[in-house]
Design goal:
The complex is a heterodimer. Chain A is of the alpha/beta class. Chain A has 7 helices and 5 strands. Chain B has a domain of about 130 residues: HypD, alpha/beta domain 1 (Rossmann fold). In chain B, the strands form 2 sheets. Chain B has a 6-stranded mixed beta sheet, with helices on both faces. In chain B, strands 2-1-7-8-9 form a 5-stranded parallel beta sheet. The radius of gyration of chain B is 21 Å and the shape is globular. The chains are: A alpha/beta, B alpha/beta.
């Protein structure tokens, strides 16, 4: 292993952290208005008995689970739980659809079965190019669901198929995912604030 | 002829070369992305006209060259099946697979046909309802719309005996892969004129900004290329990294919207393997689920394929701009267009073939004497 001088190491770490913080600030500055609309649509949907479905691949599949658990089991005890489901968690179903049909259909098939008009679909893809996420968003719109995308780079195809696309304009997957993580926390928090909870976080 | 003569005008070319000489103050490495551009540069000896500070390296934009060996072997395996009519553009027939090329497959009895358009295959499929007609759909964003159109038509006509063996790739991810390589030397790009005529150039803007490289969308005639080089060098000398369009007579910012829509309708984005480079994430197209009945990859279950590349061949490094054809010990001796070892020597757009066809192997041999 090549030795790294401690000052170089510290510089590198601080540079990456600075990049991450600057990217978040830039993103929220540019997207606050869209985020407000998205939060309002999700708040309306969940408060009227609808569900949230979340989808993504790889690291974004972890984000999908993260979003779902935030809503189903709020970290702040007094806040309400809402029905949310990550479409990435059923291994039998995912492998069956992939094997029998195509991997690109893994989320779309689930949404056609479980989704109802007025529900929300949230697709997370750092490139906006993930075929299964985009087909999921497309299926959601056909059903009459609210289709929201968290994306990166130039938004890829997600920006064309989603009703709302929140794009992190970076080429670094890590920086994009770091913004997505902050975004999912802010989104969860602000949905609750819109539904009358105190803005305490 | 308008749009041609003025772009081959020696006096104009000389003027631009003079301007390049006045502009350049230090060494720069530029990559022309397209094989067609490489071909013109070598044919007209443009690299010999440039000041020594400017080095041109040749990019991965030759569709035949970057089609992976595994895909060529798969094509051969499908073509050998008795109920198949295998169709391809002519330049793929001489590309060597691990053991043979499509000419040899045809000589051994397979029904392999050269077509000039994928739409020709639809007529063949209609005339041969008891045969499976497969078209080898290779290439960049330039050939993808016509192939997409053929599948659309086949679906509309109910031609279930027509399929595509898809090996389409996209230019921007390959440029990103080159820029991310630790061995990268490229400081500016002459962007792919024909690809951008279809796709526009907006998707190159994040690349220019992220990697701080100028990208000048450039045409294919000598004056186009020299002007593209001048525009790139101006940006480099002034510390700019933007996308500019030299090829304005053919390329619009948004590209060809109906063609882009056709691509988006028929193809999904997929990871693709590039010959000599390896797998580049989300760098190509595959047929979408809606067109699965026309996907040769699904229809034909080809046994697992083991490929063998000639060890001496440096085509991969040539495609990434890390080496030039004359750096290869086999260039012009063991490897010629008649006996190609790698795909860069087979295709007319390949850098090795361009160097050979315009006598660069003789220059190289003279230098060794």
């Amino acid at each position: 292993m090549a030795p790294i001088p401690s000052t170089t190491f510290k510089d590198a770490v601080l540079r990456k952290c600075r990049e991450s913080a600057e990217m978040k600030a830039r993103f929220f500055e540019a997207n606050a208005d869209t985020l407000e609309m998205v939060c309002r649509r999700i708040a309306e949907s969940l408060s009227t008995g609808h569900q949230l479905f979340v989808m993504g691949n790889g690291g974004s599949s972890c984000d999908a689970l993260h979003v779902a658990v935030e809503f189903v089991h709020p970290i702040i005890e007094k806040r309400r739980a809402f029905p949310a489901r990550a479409l990435t968690s059923d291994t039998a179903l995912l492998t069956a659809i992939s094997n029998d049909a195509d991997f690109s259909q893994t989320f779309a098939e689930q949404l056609r079965l479980f989704g109802r008009a007025g529900d929300v679909a949230l697709g997370i893809s750092t490139s906006g190019m993930s075929a299964n996420v985009n087909y999921g968003l497309q299926a959601a719109r056909e059903i009459g669901m609210v289709a929201v995308a968290f994306s990166g780079k130039d938004g890829g195809r997600s920006k064309d198929v989603a009703e709302y696309c929140l794009t992190v304009p970076s080429f670094s997957i890590h920086r994009i995912q770091e913004v997505h993580t902050t975004l999912l926390h802010v989104l969860w928090d602000m949905v609750h604030v819109m539904l009358g909870e105190e803005d305490i976080i | 002829m308008k749009y041609l003569d003025e772009y081959r005008d020696g006096a104009i070319a000389e003027k631009i070369v003079g301007e390049i000489r006045r502009t350049v103050t230090r060494p720069w490495v530029l990559m022309e992305v397209c094989g067609g551009q490489t071909h013109s540069i070598v044919k007209y000896g443009l690299d010999y006209l440039l000041p020594p500070e400017i080095e041109l390296v040749h990019g991965p934009g030759c569709p035949v060259c970057v089609t992976p060996l595994e895909m060529i072997d798969r094509a051969h395996a499908i073509a050998r099946q008795p109920d198949v009519i295998f169709c391809s553009f002519g330049d793929m027939l001489r590309v060597p697979g691990s053991d043979s090329d499509l000419f040899q497959v045809r000589a051994a009895g397979a029904n392999v046909r050269i077509v000039y358009s994928p739409m020709d295959c639809l007529k063949i499929a209609q005339a041969n309802p008891d045969r499976k007609v497969v078209f080898f759909a290779i290439g960049f964003e330039t050939t993808a719309p016509a192939n997409a159109m053929a599948v659309c038509q086949a679906k509309a006509l109910g031609l279930r005996n027509f399929s595509l063996l898809v090996s389409h790739v996209m230019v921007p991810p390959s440029m990103t892969a080159i820029l991310q390589s630790p061995q990268n030397r490229v400081q500016g790009f002459l962007g792919p004129g024909h690809v951008c005529a279809v796709m526009g150039w907006s998707e190159y803007e994040p690349i220019a900004a992220r990697y701080r490289v100028p990208i000048v969308i450039t045409g294919f005639e000598p004056v186009d290329l020299l002007e593209g080089i001048l525009m790139t060098v101006r940006q480099l000398e002034r510390g700019r990294a933007e996308v500019e369009n030299q090829y304005a007579r053919a390329v619009a910012r948004e590209g060809n919207l109906p063609a882009r829509r056709m691509i988006a309708q028929v193809f999904d984005i997929a990871d693709r393997s590039w010959r000599g480079i390896g797998i580049i994430p989300k760098s190509g197209y595959k047929l979408s689920y809606a067109y699965r009945e026309h996907d040769a990859d699904r229809i034909f279950q080809v046994e697992s394929i083991r490929t063998r590349e000639p060890e001496i061949c440096i085509a991969g490094q040539v495609l990434k701009g890390q080496k030039k054809p004359v750096d290869c010990p086999a260039f012009g001796t063991e490897c010629t267009p008649q006996t190609p070892l790698g795909a860069t020597m087979v295709s007319a757009e390949g850098a090795c073939a361009a160097y050979f066809n315009y006598g660069r192997h003789l220059v190289s041999l003279e230098a060794q004497v």
